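Let's practice the habit of predicting before peeking. Look at the sequence and jot down your guess about where helices and strands might fall. Then scroll down.
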Amino acid sequence: MDLGIAGKIAIVAAASKGMGKAVAVGLAREGAHLAICARGESELKKTTREITSSTSARVLPVVADVTSPNDIQRLVKKTADEFGRIDILVNNAGGPPSGLFNSFSDRDWQDAVVLNLLSAVRLCREVIPYMQKAGGGRIINIVSVAAKQPIESLVLSNSIRAAVIGLAKTLSIELAPDNILVNNICPGWILTDRLSALVKKRAEASGKSFDSTLSEITTTIPLHRCGTPEEVANLIVFLASERASYITGTTIQVDGGLTKGLL
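Done guessing? Here is the structure:
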């Protein structure tokens, strides 16, 4: 299937590793050109080399922290200056710390809001005018299955990821006349550094081994395994494509059947 992505210009946030990297690779393989950002320069350059050596994509690496308004503005401006347009935005950021409600201060909540909500708000604000000028676009937010089914000891993520979904639903309505489609992806337990950190912390708290704790998690998943970043990326690449032209305002989990709710 021709996804109609060839020649499109995409920004993928937090793309030096994990799900962001998998998305960047997936878009590049379909012929998109990319701006990718991350805080660490060496890992970002490594990812850029990997993509350009295996695809024909042009890749613009920009060292940027998505919690910084100035960095976000610089990322978007550099992308527009380099490529002349922006068609696709994939909002992505690391998750906030795990822990119970009483373990977090106001500052912890504020930091989580900046990381996971305001980063999406600010990136959308900067990118939308370019998409309107181009006659349309795609915005895909990587959130978490925690927004649909709260996860133990993830109160910050459970709360703030849901706010991103509210933002996206609102934008999907406001931007529909501009042919800008806005959707969310809710990954479940995906094999990333974030998963390893969460499992390690849970294992330490319970006095169990890493492997046994991970095994306990996978038994709650109907497919009895964790997912891969590439499995998340496959759906995002489709939603970024011309083949997804009538899908907006949706929130789709990629979780191996973990979520038990009907909607």
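How did you do? Residues 9-189+228-254 form a domain with the Rossmann fold fold (CATH 3.40.50.720).
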